[in-house]
Amino acid sequence: MFAFFTWFREILRIVLLSAALIMAAIAIVDWMVRTRRINPFNPIARFFRQRIDPLLEPVERRVLRAGGQPANAPWWALVAIVIIGIILLAIFDFAAGLVADLMVGVSGGVGGVFRLVVYWTFTVLRIAILVRVIASWLPISPYSPWIRWSFTLSEPLLRPLRRVIPPFRSIDITPIIAFFALGILEALVREWLR
What we know:
Elements: H1 2-34, H2 43-65, H3 73-107, H4 109-137, H5 148-164, H6 174-193
Helix pairs in contact: 1-2, 1-3, 2-3, 3-4, 4-5, 4-6, 5-6
């Protein structure tokens, strides 16, 4: 089972790295075509205008709406591919870790299942804090159904901390403190439950 996860992760990593390298090459050439560093009548330039630019049009529209230059669209597409790749690998690693924990927990009987529930509780709380912090950087309402769960789970941890720790120059540092405190508490609980 673990060999399959390792094999699949390696394939996924190679595919994502290849996609990023291909997009980097496309971004370089397309940028050169758009900024006229390559002759616009060159066959490469014509190919890019006919085949690649229509594929980059959705990215270009978003860049233009945000006030950017159309020549930067390929670079933003590269950034998107890299970020999506990192997120996919992180999700896969997280899922593989959950499966490994589940197998260990189930093989440990009732005590193993109890330890598993305790470990997963800490994991869910830490994820809720991360989602809450990332959502605060984006124009997402805390009442959105996608985000509300993270506020519901993390607020009982953060409210008492806010009473003790004031904001630092209008920046609330209590999520950072709660995240690391949960990590320390989890390590202590793991040691105690062994």
